[in-house]
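User: Batch of two.

Assistant: Item 1 of 2:
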Amino acid sequence: MKNVLKAFGIIAVVALIGFSMVACDDPSSSGVPAPSGVSAYRSGNLRAYVSWNGVSGADYYQIYTSTSRDGTYYATSAHTYGTSAYVTFNYSGTYYFRVTAIRNGRESARSSSYDYAYIY
């Protein structure tokens, strides 16, 4: 019984620490509002033009792409300092876009608005 309680205590501590780490890293608690009005369309060979409504005081923005609406989104390689950017792809397909704002080193949650474009 003593070993069971000891094991339970370790699991409880790990679970508590893990929860704390997730809560600290949650971008929605950064105090930075997410961009809105994301729009995207094909703009040349294997390229998309993405735009969004800016966030007051944002230092720059990060564009995220996915091959499905509810899939895993990956950051594009470059930050952009305006409210639009061109994104180049290696392969044709349908791509979904979400955007975050970064202010004073803190990143917002990804935009709830998104758009997609078929790139070829």
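Item 2 of 2:
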Amino acid sequence: MDAVERAAALRAHAEDTAGCTRCALAQGRTQVVFGSGSPDADLMFVGEAPGFHEDQQGIPFVGQAGKLLDKLLGGIGMTLLIPAIVVSNFAVLIGLFALSTFSYAAWSTMGLTFPADLYPNRTVATVSGMSGAAAGVGTILSTLAIGKITDRYSFEPVLIGASLLPVIATVLVFVLIRPARHDKTVI
């Protein structure tokens, strides 16, 4: 079966399952969350059950779990700076820095919208402003720290810290901040 036939078969299966009522999910759902992405993907993420936002949109991983997955994958991508300490192949170094930079850009872009996910609409501008101010101060302090560390030791601790800090921050945010509850939940 070629790629076109596989895609057509998946679409047909999605249409067949759209009206399924064989399990308890059918009682509380708005629509079937079948899946999305390329039928030729080498990697697939399977969720346990659709949450509120997935049920509303019919797309997997658009709710809190999807945001956590995106941030964790971005954080994991940033850890690709760590092997750069011991790699001497220039092409590999370029690849590691490129993937890490892409992951950082994706992670920081999601971070910019994070206050809107956590706080009521009336307070988002205030929280975003405070976050921006803190980021500015953090940038100044980290630049000073990077200079002092590289002068005294080497660039290795900076690469390790720059790789691990976003992952630790993401885990802390999701451990310390509880998501808002919605009126309708899907089981």
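Residues 64-176 form one domain.
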